[in-house]
User: Which sequence fits this backbone?
């Protein structure tokens, strides 16, 4: 333990050793953290939606180094950029993690990026949401290449009434991230993402309406899944995965996504945003069989006294005397239906079983963390002893959760507070009805000792930062879990950061 705290002191001292860059298009920061959590776990909101940047449980020290080159406002049609964020942790074990590392290039409205990127996908609040359904920023970014129109492009006709943006990605899960449940062997797996968003409303209108979708696919080594009769070439396999075409009666790969609706209304001093994400994992949404499930949100943004900050590092914005609120978000997450009840509209795929997959053992996860909304929990994060269906990586995907967050400031102190209260029901495999798979619904009653009994969970966090002289910033984050889904856990992070 003595050696660990010696390393912590050295990390704080080393934060002074950084060369300053003169060009304002370049940004850099160094941060040192002292961490303590109880019960050998990290509280929920200290580890969720943090792009895989999670401290070790117990007593530990962390050191983060970030640097980026942004697009220049004077660059014109062509420019380039890059970003790097590395995290080192020393505690019960030691590790170094690349949280972000990519290069990007811009030509007119188009952007190319390649590497590991911190991002989420979906029409949800960009800073305080509990997490989008498909990719929420909960796990490390999957290494990928991306071609995108990142900002809404207004179509010149009709007076810029219509605008759109979107992206097309190809990525690599790697050889050791997932394994096939049926064959219990490692395989090379690939990633595809497609999103498209449309906006109705001129740039100067108070009201703007949005709609769009996300489509994500995980696939790889189909020869092992379908056997020797699988005849598609690698390129044809990619084509089938991207367009969702069936082969041998089922789609190639594990498909997941959402169909989103949103609106913004400018109230003058406050911007109001409403959004709704509808989930799909198997195929029930096409028949509206699981339409009850979704993420509903409301966001209020105070347009006054708000200081915008660079996006290369997640610090809070805004500072003034007295109390100021900057943003408030309220959400309701519901995933209990899944078209899995005996009275649900029948579908060929059975219950949705969100994030779990029969062919890919670790389901919709990367490096052990769920890629989607963190309210759906893997077995590794919950209390031990909960029943679980063999082959389900996530033991709790039937959830009803209420969530709230506020960002603001009091004098020179800036804060973000988050809280959630959830009702958790396991999966349909541990419900009284059991899983249903394909064709007419066929329910096999689950014995009572294998049923997941409802458990409730409260989780909260508070993060406070203050700017000091000469580019220094001090911070403190505390988190708490109290309930029956996770072990009771408390934690605190003390940080000192220098920005350039």
Assistant:
């Amino acid at each position: 333990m003595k050696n660990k705290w010696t390393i912590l002191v050295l990390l704080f001292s080393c934060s002074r050793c950084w060369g300053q860059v003169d060009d304002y298009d370049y940004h850099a920061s160094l941060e040192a953290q002292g961490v303590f959590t109880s019960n050998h776990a990290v509280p929920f909101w200290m580890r969720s939606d943090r792009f895989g940047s999670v401290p070790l449980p117990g007593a530990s020290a962390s050191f983060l180094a970030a640097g980026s080159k942004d697009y220049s406002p004077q660059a014109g049609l062509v420019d380039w950029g890059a970003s790097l964020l590395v995290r080192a942790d020393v505690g019960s074990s030691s590790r170094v993690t690349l949280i972000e590392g990519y290069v990007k290039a811009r030509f007119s409205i188009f952007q190319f990026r390649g590497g590991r990127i911190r991002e989420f996908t979906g029409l949800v609040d960009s800073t305080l949401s509990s997490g989008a359904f498909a990719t929420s920023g909960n796990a490390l970014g999957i290494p990928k290449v991306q071609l995108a129109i990142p900002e809404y492009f207004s179509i010149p006709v009709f007076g810029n009434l219509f605008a759109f943006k979107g992206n097309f990605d190809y990525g690599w899960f790697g050889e050791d991230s997932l394994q096939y449940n049926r064959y219990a062997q490692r395989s090379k797996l690939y990633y595809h993402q497609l999103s498209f968003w449309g906006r109705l409303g001129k740039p100067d209108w108070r009201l703007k309406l949005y709609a769009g979708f996300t489509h994500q696919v995980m696939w790889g080594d189909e020869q092992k899944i379908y056997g020797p009769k699988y005849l598609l070439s690698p390129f044809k396999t990619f084509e089938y995965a991207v367009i969702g075409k069936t082969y041998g009666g089922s789609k190639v790969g594990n498909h997941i996504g959402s169909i989103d609706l949103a609106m913004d209304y400018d109230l003058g001093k406050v911007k109001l945003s409403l959004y709704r994400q509808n989930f799909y994992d198997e195929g029930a949404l096409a028949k509206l069989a699981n339409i009850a499930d979704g993420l509903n949100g409301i966001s209020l943004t105070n347009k006054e006294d708000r200081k915008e900050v660079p996006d290369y590092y997640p610090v809070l914005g805004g500072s003034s005397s007295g109390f100021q609120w900057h943003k408030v978000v309220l959400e309701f997450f519901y995933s209990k239906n899944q078209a899995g009840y005996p009275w649900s509209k029948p579908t060929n795929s059975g219950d949705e079983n969100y994030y779990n997959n029969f062919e890919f053992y670790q389901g919709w996860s990367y490096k052990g963390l769920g890629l989607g909304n963190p309210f759906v929990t893997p077995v590794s994060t919950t209390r031990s002893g909960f029943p679980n269906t063999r082959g389900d990586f996530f033991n709790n995907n039937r959830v009803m959760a209420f969530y709230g967050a506020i960002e603001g400031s009091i004098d020179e102190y800036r804060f973000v507070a988050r809280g959630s209260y959830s009702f958790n029901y396991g999966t349909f495999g541990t419900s009284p009805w059991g899983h249903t798979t394909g064709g007419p619904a066929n329910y096999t009653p689950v014995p009572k000792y294998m049923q997941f009994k409802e458990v409730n969970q409260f989780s909260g966090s508070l993060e406070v930062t203050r700017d000091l002289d000469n580019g220094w910033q001090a911070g403190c984050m505390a988190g708490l879990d109290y309930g029956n889904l996770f072990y009771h856990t408390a934690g605190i992070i003390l940080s000192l950061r220098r920005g350039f």
Remarks:
- Residues 1-22, 306-319 have pLDDT under 50 and may be disordered.
- The first strand starts at residue 26 and ends at 37.
- DSSP finds four helices and 24 strands in the chain.
- Residues 74 and 125 are 29 Å apart (CA to CA).
